Amino acid sequence: MNPSLIALFQLEIESQVKCLNDALIRLELGEFKERGLYAEMIRFAHSIKGAAKVAAVEPIVQLAHTLEDCFSRSHEDTSGMDSKLADLCFKAFDYLASIANASPKDLHSFISSHPPQFLIEQLQSLNRKEPQKMAIASLEPVLEKALDPIKVEHQALVKVEAAHLNRLMGLAGESMIASKRLKPFETGLLNLKMAQSELSRILEKLKLSLRETSLTDESHDCLASIQKKHEENCQTLSGQMAEFQFFIGRQLSIADRLYTEVLDSRMRPFEDCLAGFARMLRDMAKQLHKRVLLEVAGKKTLVDRDILEKLEAPLSHLLRNSLDHGIEAPAEREANGKNPIGSIRLQAEHRAGFLFLTLSDDGRGVDLNQLKQAIIQKKLINENDIDRLSSQELLEYLFLPGFTMAKEISDISGRGMGLSIIKKTMQELSGSVSMEATEGKGVAFYFQLPLTLSVMRALLVEIGKDSYAIPLARVEKVEILPVKEGMGSFYRASSLLGIEESLELKENLPVVFIGNRVRKIGLIVGRLLGEKELVVQPLSSSFSSFKSLWAGAVLDDGSPVLILDVEEIISASKGFENAPNA
Amino acid sequence: MNPLNLLLERKPDPNYLQEAAAIAAKNRVEEDVEAESVLIFRVSPHWFSLPIASIKEIASMRAIHQLPQNLKAIGVISIRGDLIPCLSLAQILRLDAEEPRKNSFSRLVVMEKNGFTWAFPSHEIAGIYPLGKAAVWDGNPVRLLDHEVLAELAQKELS
Predict the structure, then answer these.
(1) How near does any CA of chain A get to the CA of B158, in Å?
(2) Cβ contacts of A465 on chain B, cutoff 8 Å
(3) Subunit contact B81:A554, Cβ cutoff 8 A
(4) Pairing of strands B140-144, B46-51
(5) Interface contacts (A, B; CB < 8 Å)
(6) Which residues of A touch B110 (CB under 8 A)?
(7) Residue A578 and residue B83 in contact, taking contact as beta carbons nearer than 8 Å
């Protein structure tokens, strides 16, 4: 059997199973009443059958056919599918998903060791309470005709080593820097042109002043040829300059486009990390006897693949949290005048150069009084001070490691570590997360993340004689203050980093305030150089012993700049408490 | 008679001597100059050489960014957009030598070994010469460096 054909077959199954899962989840939430969804599912199952036929995988043909039977019978039947059959269908989808994930080489042995016969028989027995063979038979040809195999658009993808992409990125950046250096050269040429016209004027003046004097023929000829030569030169220069300017324009635009293209190659649509979420929620809801619908907006929003990879775990955690703690049981929801089906919304969008993610549910929200009790109980704040905190500040406590309001630890959630891990992940990604909760109305989490880890807005500062960058997302404020080292939580950046710096005696020093939720410090730097967009370059393992460095970048003039690891600097500052002024 | 003897004792081809003489008369072609060649360069007053196979490229002098937590003469440079460590050879070899000043002869020698890329500044590059002719340069002794040991020392310097 042709392995590429098998791979195609698996790809087809994978995408159709995804659609089947989505459709059946929606169907189940709608109490199996939405007629249109059955027809959709028949089409998906039919596509699987077709693909299995082409790849000659007979057991899958049978399974797909049985599924088709089940769907079309439910379609005919006014009472629709029952939840028992739906469960079985989900099992069948999982089986198909495992087929899609099996190695193409061992597919046949995989199928013979895990035959779908049992599933087929069960499906048939549930389906055959009242055989309606005729109806199926009459539906089949109609479908055959109407069925254009549903094409799920697969953008052709190739695998490229990340190291190659990083090199490409470095080169594209370098090419951009090189092109930018053409500009000063152009200015030089322009100056030359101006000097030439100055020369023209001097020549003209010379000619006028010599009019009174009688010149020898030789001098006259000489003067004439100087003037002629000069005019020629001017013309050549003009021509060359025009050509050069054209070249610069082109070069800059090519370098710029190359650069954007390489950057884009790191981006993937948001939906890439959502694959299993809907199904996970459905299975969990079933277990908890709740009903929930996951809505996703902005599936196509592009996200850097490194960020996307790191988002999957936090999102899945929050979704589980929402369903377990937030969404109430259907009866309770109805009693409160809510839709019995809970809703969890996930939204991704680009705004103001950042990626914003919102995850909200319409569950029971957070009981602030209970939260206050929990905070006091854990002795995190004085009882008298707690009323001064805003609801926003109260909710911040939920992000502390080990803080939980759950009375029992379930296998789904409750240990109180999740939110603190999420907060940490966000900080590692130079992003932030905040929470909003209304009692009885639900909870919303807001994530703000950089669009990509490859480009970062940073504050450039001078420490010692070199420039360093601090991720702008981590800078709380910048001030010029009359401070001295050793004063409160102010630290000289050069001593934290171990850099030699000639200490200037100045009254006011530039201070950059950075912090995490436990510690805020003011970093005294040598000079503020401004804000800049940097192309982040991960530092090679050679630099692994320099803990205070997060990454590097190259400035427009080709000189390197090092990006500081804010977390490391903050923890390094602890060791400098009460350090002598050195 | 033994067939082997038959083979060994057969008469030579009448043209054999001439052919052999023609081969011997040819000039010997230098074999694989690359593997036998070294780069001769100077760091402060010392002349060194390194097998050219160990050298990735010779780059012009450029801005060196100092590394934190390290007051030794090492830093970071950008080579074609890649950030690599730049170390002082004198420091690695524990030689007394002033740091190279930025003059027109200074170059950066970029080395690579098993994916570890690093560079050191050199005051002057003499050029590439066959190993056999690289013992003396300009009246000074040239010391051949072991690039593998050098890479290890450089890595130690960074850790």
Answers:
(1) 7
(2) 66
(3) yes
(4) parallel
(5) 79
(6) none
(7) no
> Taking the mean position of all CA atoms in its chain, how far away is CA A511?
31
| Predicted confidence (pLDDT) per residue in A465-476, tens digit | 889 999 888 888
- Whether this model's ipTM surpasses 0.95 comes out as no
* Tens digits of residue pLDDT in A411-456: 555 556 778 888 888 877 878 888 888 888 888 999 988 877 777 8
Summarised one tens digit per residue, pLDDT across range B30-62 is: 555 455 789 999 888 889 999 988 999 999 888
Distances (CA, A) of A144 to A23, A52, A303, A578: 21, 16, 39, 81
Q: How far is CA B36 from CA A48, B31, B32, B131, B133, in A?
A: 64, 9, 7, 6, 10
Between the CA of residue A238 and those of A2, A184, A250, A568, what are the distances in Å? 65, 17, 18, 56
The token pair at A200 is 């023209």
Instruction: Pick A497's closest partner by Cβ from B68, B76, B85.
Output: B68
Distance from CA of A542 to the nearest CA of B (A): 7
Q: What is the distance between the alpha carbons of residues A484 and A486, in angstroms, rounded to a whole number? A: 6
* Residue in B67, B70, B80 closest to A171 by CB: B80
Verify whether the Cβ–Cβ distance B81 to A497 is below 8 Å.
no
**Looking at residue A580, what is its pLDDT?**
41
The string of pLDDT tens digits covering residues A179-205 is 887 888 889 889 999 999 999 999 888
Q: Do A542 and B85 touch (CB under 8 A)?
A: yes
Q: Where in A203-324 does DSSP place strands (E)?
A: 267-269, 292-297, 302-304
Rounded CA gap, A22 and B64, in Å?
A: 56
- Count of alpha carbons within 13 angstroms of residue A556, beta-carbon side: 9
| Candidates A167, A542, A560; nearest CB to B116 | A542
For residue A466, list chain B residues with Cβ-Cβ distance below 8 A: 65-66
pTM above 0.95, yes or no: no
Q: Is A347 on the interface with B (CB under 8 A)?
A: no
